[in-house]
Design brief:
This protein is an alpha+beta fold. The protein is built from eight helices and 20 strands.
Length: about 375
């Protein structure tokens, strides 16, 4: 009985408002914050200067409505990009637009929320870059300052701006974690000298800018390394020196002139099997066919003649750089230009020889 009375009394006291509430409660006075820290000021300045240049890219898939039969567009993926110049050229990743087809449309949303239909000017799948063109008032087009990636240092600050998960104007910060990395494009070609950063890069960040502490473009955010598909501390950006070399070509010609030898090569697995059987002396790149009138043919290289059981040249080095696979061949030619002369070391009929040839432009598309 006493226990019951005590419990009831406790509950009654607990209900008394004066025990819980203060009718005179007021907001607490605000403490003066003082000036912002210098690094905060730098970050804010970067965001304020760069945000007007960063755009959201929306892919639209066209479909015919079953009810009225009219064509309609539905969003099918988003990404980021940035204004390249006052003429309305916009840079992004190729994979943001992929796959490109007649049943897809691309729209660019500027920082001022103005929406513009975009035309594809040119793409470079090998380096995961693309250029779009929009017709927007010049005052809405704010190009980013261009920096250089040649003198970057591990440890310096990095700032990524984009639209991850469709969230507008998202800033993430970090440092440059590594330089000279290599990733693989959608065409299975290596993209070299890639910047590694721990500034968070997520789905939708692709194509957005990576900036230095001066607010200059130093890279295009392109990929992440993650077992789950979400950001795990390692992001990659195509270096700005590469971007600044490729984008003008896309604007001028709609494509990039890629240098090549003028050969078709055998799969690495075929070469490995021939080495295993003792048919070839070592691993390299086996020439299967020569482009008629191409650089390799003019230089006297030999292709494989299957019916006659004659093997073509086995390329083992270019300019003293070892070549043991197709990937090595792509790496050796990266950074070369059409018309540039290279020395190709190959093995033919068991004899090593050096062939000098002038690189030719590879077919586009």
């Amino acid at each position: 009985m006493l226990v019951l009375v005590g419990a009831l009394l406790y509950r009654v006291i607990d209900w008394i408002p004066s025990r819980l509430h203060d009718p005179h409660a007021q907001p607490r006075p605000i403490d003066a914050r003082g000036d912002l820290a210098e690094d905060e000021k730098v970050t804010i300045r970067i965001v304020e200067q760069a945000s007007p240049a960063v755009v959201q890219i929306v892919n639209l898939a066209l479909y015919r409505h079953v009810g009225d039969g009219n064509l309609r567009a539905a969003p099918e993926g988003t990404g980021s990009g940035f204004v390249w110049d006052k003429q309305g050229y916009v840079v992004t990743n190729y994979h943001v637009l992929h796959p490109i087809s007649r049943t897809r449309r691309v729209r660019v949303i500027l920082n001022l929320d103005s929406v513009h239909d975009a035309r594809i000017v040119g793409v470079d799948p090998d380096h995961d870059l693309a250029v779009l063109k929009i017709d927007a008032p010049e005052h809405e087009l704010v190009p980013l300052p261009i920096g250089t990636s040649a003198d970057l240092k591990v440890g310096q600050k990095a700032f990524a701006i984009g639209h991850p998960w469709g969230l507008q104007e998202t800033l993430t910060t970090g440092v440059i974690s590594g330089l000279g990395r290599e990733i693989t494009s959608l065409t299975n070609r290596p993209i070299q000298d890639v910047i590694q950063t721990d500034a968070a890069i997520n789905s939708g960040n692709s194509g957005g800018p990576l900036l230095d502490s001066a607010g200059r473009l130093i890279g295009v955010n392109t990929a992440i390394q993650s077992p789950s598909g979400a950001f795990a501390g390692i992001g990659y950006a195509v270096p700005v020196d590469m971007v600044n070399h490729i984008v003008p070509q896309l604007i001028r010609n709609g494509h990039v002139d890629r240098p090549g030898l003028g050969v078709a090569i055998a799969p690495d697995s075929v070469v490995a099997e021939l080495v295993r059987r003792g048919v070839l002396p070592r691993q390299g790149v086996l020439v299967m066919r020569l482009t008629e009138g191409g650089a390799a043919e003019q230089a006297g290289m030999r292709g494989t003649q299957v019916e006659e059981r004659i093997l073509g040249d086995l390329i083992v080095a270019i300019d003293d750089r070892p070549v043991t696979s197709a990937l090595d061949l792509y790496r050796a030619l990266e950074g070369k230009s059409v018309g540039e002369t290279v020395e190709v070391i190959s093995i033919r009929d068991g004899t090593e020889k050096t062939i000098t040839l002038e690189l030719q432009a590879l077919p586009n598309g």
